[in-house]
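Archive entry. Fields below.
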Amino acid sequence: MPVQHAEERALVWQEPGWDRDGNMPSAAVFCGEILPEMIMALGYMPKRVFPSVSYPDLSPVTLPPFSCAAAKSHVSMLLRGELDDVELFVFSDTCDTMIALHSIFQSRGKKTIRLASPRSFSTNASRHYLLSEIQRITTTSEMRFSEDSFQRAAALYARLRQLLSALAELRDRMPQDVFFKINRYAWSVHPEAACAVLQDLVNELSTSPRRQAFRVLLLGSCVLGPGLFQLLDRLKLVVAGDNMCDAQRMNPGWPVAHLSDVAALTCERPPCPCKHGGGASACLDRLLAAHDPDGVIIHTQKFCDPHSWDLSRVKQRLARLGVRYLHLETSGEVSEQHRLRLESFCELLDAERRY
Amino acid sequence: MSRLTSANHLKKVMSRYYTGLRIPSPGKRIAWVTSGAPIEILRAMNIQVAYPENYAALCAARRQSQRLMEIAESSGLSEDLCSYARCHIGSVLSPQAAPWKGLPRPDVLICCNNICSTVTLWYEYLAEILEVPLFFLDTPRVDGSPAPHQVAYVKRQLEDLVCFLEARFRRRLDEQTLAATLKTSVKTARLWAEIRNTAKKRPSPIEAPDLFIAMAPIVVLRGTRAALDYYRLLHEELLLRIENGVGVGRDERVRLVWDNIAIWHALFRVNQMFATHGGVFVADTYTGGWTFELKEGDPLESMAHAYLSVFLNKGFADRLADLEKSLSEYSAEGLVMHANRSCKPYSLIQPELARQISKRMGLPVLLLECDMADPRAYAEEQLRLRIEAFMEQVGGIL
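PREDICTED_STRUCTURE:
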């Protein structure tokens, strides 16, 4: 069964696997704003590091308690030695936490690249600056960037993006946590390996029936573990779409061919709430129009400032449009309290459907 | 603690500033700005500037911030967000509950993100609820010196800012007025640096809580005669203290450096806990943020360079070097870091900075978790115990 096969393969990424991929040393990419094509063209195998609910939590010696769970997870991985085989650590200046993480890794003697990205993508000046910044990285990082290697990497990731887009169309035909795992898996292994798994999965799901359930949108911060998705499955809630940086925000669906496309794609993707004037409302409206959900679940991580600011705006917008929503704040994994709140939300959706 | 006589003048200057903001006059325009915004352009165009951050700090110092934060939280803002933002937004949502009924309504908002990412989201929120135009000045993060493409990017935005203000208010920016304002700004910033430097003497004529109070004009009145005159007065007073060997009015057994924004609602209470054991904060990292220099040449390019180089916009190595320099130049025997829940760019790297300082300089470091404006995050007894243990370590308790 490809679903099972894919699930088994997807679980592999959860084990630390940072060995060299052929001749390529590993690069750990901490933010979805960095396109992997660029890192591969620099001679590294890019693997996105996703935060997870992991123990022991060693972060208190390096981070204050009011840091978000994602930051704690990344720092714990570093201190536990799970990233010792990684040769390059890649960050982008999205939020203050990401900037702090770069500082910590740098201070611990790690080789890092930091994209000093603009906080706004809405002006010509900022787009021009972003391209200059990308060019700075490719020319000053003492690595072997070439347009040819970029073209090869771009072709590999173009196929991956295409298959992930196809999979997103079929996400209501598979368990929710599998979609979550597959997405993470796809950005954590060589794109050729990921494409093989994805192609099997897409073929199989194309002939599978849709699951009868309430359709919801999932918005907000990335989810650290599979618990929320398993809970959604149990409650017969299907995520029809999302704007999360570990899922659909990573993949707007179109390929890049040149370095200038990297800047363009970065600017055109669904906006990270860290960005000024990113058109978050328009993006929400597009998601609502595309999926016509029964309700919306907004997830925020405790101490994640950008999503906390965004929350009030999203709530207001949904209330204005008369869309039912539920806000869940987690510090990593879901708890009994979250289960109760989700159950009540389901009952509400059910009552609305019946009456 | 011996009081600075120039403090009376400071009170008058600040009260005149806040009263002046409220007095209506024909053609008067008000901009709300972030503390790292390039106000010289606004001043040169005769636009009054008001500072939500400074206002929130004042509310906290007057112990009136909690009520305002609760108003903001009840409107849906998370209690984990910046307390300056919550306090100020509370004053916007409910002016009747705020000191002086809040800041006077702005005509424009000018947000520069060289101090943190939060201001970007805070000002967007303000623009939405107030329906006021917002100009966003993006200053990418700098390692060492700003790169040429970063300076070019910010310079281009400064040009856009001028166009935005000229179109909005139908007034021109006069280059000579801008040059004069910049000259006054630089003079004031240099004087402020000299004032901070007086604390290198033993005994120190000034301590961090005085600096936190005295910093208001360099933030809100930078580029004006009023700020320059006040700092001249303060500087003269400090030189006189040095000449007469007068310190801050008590035993100076342990010289300390403070890192991060003040705990405004308990500024003197916290200071007293150290003072009891002979601790004097001879320097802090926060008030040093307004000691900038401008390069010769094109004014907008110089401003781009200066506003990119604000210390909170710089990387870890720069922060570490600045801290080491302060600790060594001020002959400090310990470092106290306020792990400020509200200020992530300042606080998230503090444990790592502390580790490096201890390793490289062998100095004891104390991390105190609190909040600059939210008294609900203040646990006095817990702080006292930690401070006593630290003071024992640095030799304050014999």
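CURATOR_NOTE: Residues 12-16 of chain A have pLDDT under 50 and may be disordered.
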